[in-house]
Design goal:
about 200 residues
């Protein structure tokens, strides 16, 4: 029952759509209506508002970390905390508040990794930054970090955590399937490339 409670609390926390919440607060168009139509920080950045994108990124990452911290605070062991974190990640990808059509999970996954180990999160964040700096492809950077994460988890934390991280990584890769097709076709947009922000703001 405790595990179910941790999972439910983590899922509901993860379901909070910060991309939509922040965009509405800033008077921006709904991120589901333009660009990739993905309710995440990268798509919010396409609106041209860097502060809104940064706040979305922080909020999405905080969901994963906070879910695990709160679980531990109310007495969960490491397994319970892991359940809460993974559930938060699933909540972001399949949010009940957005009819189960959520983001790709990169920021929330990073928050969960930070909940397991700060060094693990740092290793994956540095991988993302390095690949993004060299290639200027956000999607390729995310896929690279997802590939590194299970191995880094095995080395830095342990086998059990590595298995949980592997499951997150596989789902994250699946959520990037359209980006993978675009990367292979050479049509994927680059960071800092030409923006096509929406012309209408949210009501």
């Amino acid at each position: 029952m405790n595990a179910l409670a941790y999972a439910l609390a983590g899922y509901l926390l993860g379901s909070l759509p910060f991309a939509v919440i922040v965009s509405r607060a800033f008077g921006l168009a709904d991120p589901r209506s333009f660009g990739s139509k993905n309710p995440g920080a990268t798509n919010v950045l396409r609106s041209g508002n860097k502060l809104a994108a940064a706040l979305t990124l922080l909020g999405d990452a905080a969901k994963g970390l906070l879910a695990m911290a709160l679980a531990r605070l109310i007495g969960a062991d490491e397994t319970g905390a892991a359940i809460a974190g993974i559930a938060a990640f699933l909540g972001h990808v399949f949010p009940v508040f957005l009819r189960f059509k959520g983001g790709k999970g990169v920021a929330t996954a990073l928050g969960v990794l930070a909940g397991f180990s700060g060094w693990l999160a740092l290793a994956c964040a540095m991988t993302w930054l390095l690949v993004a700096f060299i290639t200027r492809y956000s999607s390729l950077a995310a896929l690279s970090a997802a590939a590194v994460a299970p191995l880094a988890a095995w080395v830095l934390v342990g086998r059990e955590v590595a298995v949980a991280v592997l499951l997150m990584s596989l789902l994250l890769v699946w959520r990037h399937k359209e980006n993978i097709r675009k990367l292979l076709a050479g049509t994927e947009g680059r960071i800092g490339g030409k923006k096509t922000p929406p012309s209408e703001t949210a009501s």
